Amino acid sequence: MDTFVIVLMVIFLFVIAYRQYSSFLVSRLDLLGERVSPQPQVGRQPDHPDDAPTELPILLAQHTSSIAGAGPIIGPIIAGIAFGWLPVFLWILIGNIFIGATHDFAALALSLRYESKSIAEVVRHRFGRKVYRLFGFLIWLSLSALIVVFTNLTAVTFVDMTYGKAIVKSSLFYLLLSLVVGFLITRWRFLLWTITGFAVIFLFFIILKSETLPFPLPKWFALEHVWKWEWVILGYCFVASVLPMRLLLRPNGYLGGYFMYTSLALGLIGLLIGSLLGDVQPIYPPFHGFWSLKEGPLFPMLFVIVACGACSGFHGLVCSGVSSKLIEKREDARLVGYGGMLLEGGVALITLATLMVISSNAATVFNDPTQIYINGLSHILGFIGVNRDWAGYFAILSLATFVYDTLDVATRIGAYLIQEGAGWAGRGGEYGRRTAGALGSLLLPALVLFLYPAESYLAFWPVFAAANQLLAGLTLLVISKCLAGERGMPLYTLIPGVFVLVMALSALFLLVVPWVRSVLQGRFYLDVAPALGIILIVVTARILMEIFKR
Q: How far, in Å, CA of 164 to CA of 176, rounded?
C-alpha cells in the first residue's frame, strides 16, 4: 500500500471519527444534559489550589502531553517487529476510534457527572469501600509499573553514547523554561500566545544548539550508569509531584503538548512529501504471522504490547484525576477526551512509520525501539530539509519530553490516590500530605529499580502494558455499570471493556505460566514481572466478583 494513501486515509478516518462518532458519544453520555453535575466556570473558588479552571489551549496541550508518554512510541515498534506493521496499523486505527478515545471521553464525562471526582472516587461512591480499596490498589500497581518502565527508559537515553550529553542539557533547559513559563503565566499574567511563541522558539533553539550550549554540567551530572540516573529521575518525580501544578506540571505539559503537535505535524508533512517523491514506502514486512518467538501469540499480545498507542487505562486516571478538575466549559470535554486520544493515535502511527520505512535487517541491527524511532524520524524529517543530526536530537528529546510529563502526572495521581485512601483531604498541612503521598507512590518503583538496577525497560514492558490494559477494561466496565439503565446497556463501552479485559488477562496468564511451572518443578527464582502478574490477576478477579455481586 502506498504511504501517501495510508497517511491520507488515517487523517480522513480520524476526522470523520471525531465529527461523527464523538457526536454520538456526546448524545449518549448526556454530556450537555441536565443529569451532568454543573461544572463551575472561571472565577470559582477551587476546592484545591491546583484545580483552577484552565484555558482550553493550555488544558489540551497539557492533557495530550501527559497521556502520550513513551507508550505510543515504544509499543507500536515492539509489536511491529514481532508481528509486522499491518496488524499494528489496523489495531491503532480501530482501537483509537472505538476503544481508546471512547474510554478517555467516557471517563472524563463520568468524572464530570460526579463533580470532577477521580474514577477511584466514583468506584467508592457506586460500589462501596471494599471495591474502592481493591481498585485503588490496582491503580497503584499500574502506576508503579509505569514509573518503573518510563524511569528506566529515560535513564537509558541519558547514557546514550551519541545523544546522551546533549539530551541532558536540553532536558535541563526544557525544565527551566517550563518554570519560567509557569511563573510568567501565573504571576505576571503575560499574554498566553506571546509566551507560547517565545517559549516554542527558544525550545527549538535549545535543540538546535544542544551540542554547543554554554552550560557546563556539574561533576555530579557526569553519571555514566543507568541506575544513577534512575535515582535522579525518581527525585525529580518527587519534587514535581509536591510542587503546585501551576508552577511546573502545567507549563511543562503545555510546552510538551506543543512539542507533540510539532513532531506530529512535521512527521505527517515529511511522510507526505517523501511518499510523493517515492522515497518513503513500506519496506518492512506487513505481516510476520500469528506467532512471535519473542512476544508469543498475536492474540492477545498485539492488543497489550501496543498499549497507549491504541488504548490506555492511565488515560482514564488523567481524564478523571486531573483534566476533569481543570475543564473550564463542559463542551470542551469532547476535544480534550476524544480529540486528545486521536492526537496520540497520530503519534503512534508516525512512530509505526519509522519502522515501516526500514528493512528487517536494519531493524535487527538497531535492536532497540528508541534507536529505530530516532533513525526513522530522522529519515522522514530529511524530506522537509531538516538536518539528520538535528532531527535525531529532536526525536530523542520529544521522547524524553513526553516521558517527563507522564512521570509528573503518574506520581501526582498516585499521591492523590494515597491521600484520598488515607482520608487526608483538606487544606491544612497540604505540603506534608503531598510529601507523604508522593513517597508512597514512589515506594514500589524505587524498590523494583533497586532490585533490578540494570534491567531493561523492555523486560518490564509486557507486565506494564497488561496492567495498563487491565485498568482500561475495568474502567470501561465501571462506566458501563454507572450508565446502565438510563438508555439501556451502553454497548459502546461494555463491548470494548470486555474485549480489552480478556486480552489483558490472557496476556498475564501467558506471562505467569512459565514462572509458575518453574516454581512447581522446584526451580524457584525471583522475578518481579510474573509475581506482579499474579497479584494483578487475583485483584482483578476480586474486583469483578464484587462488581457483579451488586
A: 19
Whether 240 and 408 have beta carbons less than 8 Å apart is answered as: yes
Torsion sign, CA atoms 288, 309, 29, 316:
positive
**Grid cell locating 427:** 487544606
SS3 call for 327: strand
Amino acid, single-letter form, for residue 17: A
Angle between helices 129-158 and 430-451 (to 10 degrees): 60
The DSSP line for 174-228 is HHHHHHHHHHHHHTS---HHHHHHHHHHHHHHHHHTTTT-S-PPPGGG---SHHH
Give percent above pLDDT 90 in the chain. Answer: 48
pTM here is 0.93
Distance of CA 212 to the CA centre of its chain: 32
What confidence tens digit (pLDDT) does each residue in 99-132 have? 999 999 999 999 998 888 889 999 999 999 999 9
Determine the pLDDT at residue 54.
79
Tens-place pLDDT, residues 441-495: 999 999 999 988 877 888 899 999 999 999 999 999 999 999 887 667 899 999 9
Domains of the chain: residue spans and CATH: 3-36+56-549 (1.20.1740.10)
Place 221 in a pLDDT band, splitting at 50, 70 and 90. low
Contact predicate 311/103, CB 8 Å:
yes
C-alpha cell at 520: 512447581
Cβ atoms 398, 347 nearer than 8 A: no
DSSP string, 68-83: HTTHHHHHHHHHHHHH
Residue 84: what are its φ and ψ, rounded to 5°?
95, 160
Q: Are 55 and 328 in contact (CB under 8 A)?
A: yes
CA distance 318 to 344: 14
Q: For position 190, what pLDDT does the model report?
A: 62
- Rounded to 5 degrees, φ, ψ at 29 are -85, -5
Ramachandran category for residue 526: left, alpha or beta (phi over 0 → left; psi -120 to 50 → alpha): beta
Contact 381, 394 (CB under 8 A): yes
Contacting residues for 8 by C-beta, under 8 A, at least 6 apart: none
Q: How many CB atoms lie within 10 A of CB 499?
A: 19
pLDDT of residue 47: 46
Tell me which of 390 and 45 has the higher pLDDT: 390
- Cβ atoms within 10 Å, residue 43: 7
Residue pair 123/131 in contact (Cβ under 8 Å)? The answer is: yes
- CA–CA distance from 102 to each of 28, 122, 313, 472, 526 (Å)? 11, 18, 12, 11, 38
